[in-house]
Amino acid sequence: MNNEIIVRFPPSPTGEAHIGNIRTFLFNYLFARKNDGTIVMRFEDTDKERSDEKYEKSILETLDELGLDFDRGPFKQSERNEFYIDALNTLIEKGVAYEAEESNDGSGNKVIRIKNPNKKIKFNDLIRGDIEIDTTEFGDFVIARSKNDPLYHLTVVVDDIDMGISHIIRGADHITSTPRQIILIEALGGNVPKYIHLPLIIGDDGKKLGKRHGAVSWKEFKEVGYISEGVINYLALLGWNPGDDREFFTKEDLIEEFDISKINKSPAKFDYKKLDDINRKHILKLSSDQYRNYVFNYISEDLKEKFSKEPQKADKIIEQVIKERISKFGELKNMEKDGEFDFYFEKPNIDIQELNFKDTESSETKEFLKEIKEKIGEIDETEWNKESIKDKIWEWSGNIGRGKVLHPFRFLLSGLKKSPDPFTISEILGKDEVLDRIDEIILRI
Ligand code: GLU
After folding, report:
1. Closest ligand 1 atom, CA of 160?
2. I want to staple 429 with a disulfide (CB 3.0 to 4.6 A). Which of 104, 377, 405, 433 is the partner?
3. What's the pTM?
């Protein structure tokens, strides 16, 4: 008995790798890596019209960018026709496959059909238990269009046997393929592998996850700024859990923890909010350099230039503003669009009408601003940071009413209805600039 574990990843290159493919590959990957198994990569490009090499390339790029490697292949079914033809001939010689009319429409088109043993096929799914399907209704199904043109189920089975696949881990939508494929495996005298059918991935409306629910391919995920570590972690939790409530995993942790007996049967709901939360945890683990590089990949040329001219300011903005806020780097685009970085680099236009907190009088606000200026003016340049600035005015402002003092202070610095607190902004702007902005506003009141 050969106990070697060999799994396969056999996408049809008819589109970008989507979440379903990636989750399937990830589960194969984790299972194989955990058990010192072998991963075979093969492209099932028997559908000549829809298959395209550009998708093969992009699927391989996706795996590479996600850090998911394989051990053998990539093979291409279109280059393995001789094996399928051999198998077809064997089946015909054995008398279990035969040439027949495609239909009764009189067109005369011939196809090759397998003789269906018309029995109940029972197989064991490692998660779902025994599954029994009566194959009678499949009839003598077509396995090739001609002796040179084998169809999907035959190519899959020939490859699975030839490549020594021990475990087939694939989506639950393939359960109905399994009995057909077992009929073929038995006809060819192969060993029936072990099956694991993964739960479907559904959107929050309970329907199979698709484009209308949001990003579904790695390319789209990247565009909105998720990172591979976050996506891998989240996808591993789509239909699997470690048996407790831990949710943060690196790829290495996952390999260590992965256990197929903890895969669920019921459909897994794709939760973009949870993906955001997990991605956020992973981006916060990036080194400062890695984080900065990501930021630079998602901001405009214009902002890049500003950041490059004032690197210390940029570092503070990244550490104190961006890291506090975002879950994925694509959010930077919106922040930029909403002017959330402009006021760090140039004085904002202040609508003086908006300066007062609620029904505070302008004359009062003016006094508060003068007082702020005096208090924070005492801070030494070398001690200028958000804590020291806060220390100077926190207690005093509490006695007056924080909104009355802190709203105009924050607003004159940013000019925005929403922005970080005035202490953070002040630290980033530096002492001179803050005092200057306060002065200018005092003169206008
Ligand atoms: N080529 C099939 C697909 O992309 C693979 C199915 C299988 O794992 O057997 O859905």
Report:
1. 9
2. 433
3. 0.92
